Write the structure tokens for this entry.
Amino acid sequence: MVQVVPQLISLEEFLDWYPDRGGRYELWHGIVIEMQPTGPHEQVAGFLGVKLGVEIDRRSLPYIIPRQAIVKPIDTERSGYNPDLIVLNREALKAEPLWPKRSTIINGESVRVAIEVVSTNWRDDYGHKFIDYEAMGIGEYWIVDYLGLGSRRYIGSPRQPTLSVYELVDGEYQLQQFRRSDRIISPAFPELTLTAEQVFAAGTLEEI
């Protein structure tokens, strides 16, 4: 990640600035950060987008997957996250004041699933974003650690590729983790037939 704007700015200023730029950016405590994902990272995110999109279409689920959306954490006007993949509740978007012109989400209920694909900044996915997504009330949060980069505290020992699904229960995230041939269990997509190793394999050119 690379800091782009030298001075601190607000989320409103960030949203004014963003449309004139290419690429993907996030705002962290007033600092604009350019996200620079690797090819394999994008392969994994793209694979999941296709699979979940097919599931939405096949089951006629009331969800959409936007190309990108900004998620505003609560209690701050200086941060905005851009998840690697986000599944939104189409009906809930009617109550989102910033969505029509800013493609920005402020209500956790609007997000059916937020997905982060782990890169070298894994501490953000397991730390800051976990805390903020939970506080917002986002019902489901996936951390796709396809290279096993996270610390043993998060993915166990020995470290290995792990897909963590956090479900919000009584205001707190409850964790299930999936590895190798485990079928991914998702409250948002209960009929999903996808294994962890299928997701991880998307990050290798040999399997595409």
Remarks:
- The domain at 37-207 is CATH 3.90.1570.10 (tt1808, chain A).
- The chain has one domain: 37-207.
- The chain has a mean pLDDT of 94.
